[in-house]
């Protein structure tokens, strides 16, 4: 049953009509639990509060699967506005971006120019940009574009790698040799068993393997998970190997396992919260429901409240 619901939410995440409707009607159905608000001001306010509590933040101006140049250019401007606002308020943040929001499906060269502009602005402020990783269909193009921008701004850009994909071991090996700053995640998209482990236990095992590999290679590693078993294992690994705090951080999503986030900060670990905001919340929200179909309970509650 859980698998059926998971597949259903991942299928719904791709529904463009529902996405358009959701944008028009604002944050609904409990999405506020996972999304910090609709405006840059909302995001700045939430980030300030998180920074004061000892968290670092990565901001994500929500959006993906954009198919017109105008929308993609608008998305790039939103990223620049976010960076400007963060710098003005001296926030401890970086930016997470999705390439399909910036025109990857329209024209790769156009997308490259947009990303270059965003990373140049971030570098000017001493900030960093992380390219989120999307579904397998966009994987190779994302890596290609990342490598192009990295050659110009090596210290200001990083990538995400998904443990669910068979190819990721090779990617982490290559990036490990080149000292690339990676966020490792399990993977949030529905993929074919031809390219990804169908069994969650294999994903979890590969996740730990890739985390250990990248840390052992001496590279900065963002351990992005809410999974207690992985977190406890990595705490032990970090302690045993004497890995310093400037080589890793734990990362979690806004609104998910907040008590665990707070506990890690109290214990002295570096923790960064991924703070999504904006009107284009629908697909992001569907993926969060897919990860934990039990979340549907509070969606129903919020529907009866409003
Ligand atoms: P797992 O799914 O095994 O969950 C472990 C426990 O965490 C659950 O038992 C539950 O308690 C809690 N939990 C997890 N998800 C929850 C939810 N939605 N609601 C409530 N509780 C939940 N993916 C991707 O493909 N590309 C990307 O760029 C990113 N970026 C990214 C950044 C950051 C900072 C994080 C934390 C995650 C991502 N992801 C991602 C998502 C990632 O791939 C994965 O889908 C989720 O993190 C869920 O997997 P966990 O590792 O948390 O483990």
TrEMBL record:
Pfam families named in the record: Pro_dh
Ranges that cross the membrane: none
Reactions catalysed, as given in the entry: L-proline + a quinone = (S)-1-pyrroline-5-carboxylate + a quinol + H(+)
Residue stretches making up the Proline dehydrogenase domain: 45-299
Cofactor: FAD
Matches recorded under SUPFAM superfamilies: FAD-linked oxidoreductase
Biological or metabolic pathway of the protein: Amino-acid degradation; L-proline degradation into L-glutamate; L-glutamate from L-proline: step 1/2
Its EC number(s): 1.5.5.2
Keyword terms of this UniProt record: FAD, Flavoprotein, Nucleotide-binding, Oxidoreductase, Proline metabolism
PANTHER family attached to this UniProt entry: PROLINE DEHYDROGENASE 1, MITOCHONDRIAL, PROLINE OXIDASE
Protein known as: proline dehydrogenase
Native source species: Salinithrix halophila
